[in-house]
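Same chain as my last thread, 155 residues:
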Amino acid sequence: MYRQKSRSSSEAGLTLVELIVTVAILAVLASAAIPLTKLEVKRQKERELRYDLWQMRDAIDRYKDAADRNAFQTKVDSFGYPPDLQTLVNGVDVQGKKVRFLRRIPVDPMTGKDEWGLRSMQDDPDSDSWGGQNVFDVYSKSDGTALDGTKYNTW
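reply #2:
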């Protein structure tokens, strides 16, 4: 005859209560991780925005320095600043060579577009409308608020 061994309580598998408790603990841990992930994504976009703004402002400054050294001709009312961002990408002729100041116009990580707010030398420092004479500064068109409480369009 074949006899079945009975299991003792220490050999038994997981009970339904143990499974429910385990799943509940995992759910609590997962729900705590989601906000941290969203925060890290926002932090990464902010780093990218700061880098893109730095890169464009640096290109504007290099263009201005070259114009001040009379490396190429600029319009009199431009104060040596570029007429638009595309000029930084297209470049200018300096002694028969094409000099580019920016590889491409970066995409604003907050808006998802390659459209930036521009300020000319003649505009007010906190103006949100571009006079069109030259590009003195750039800013994000996003109305969002950063992790530090400032608005992106004031960076």
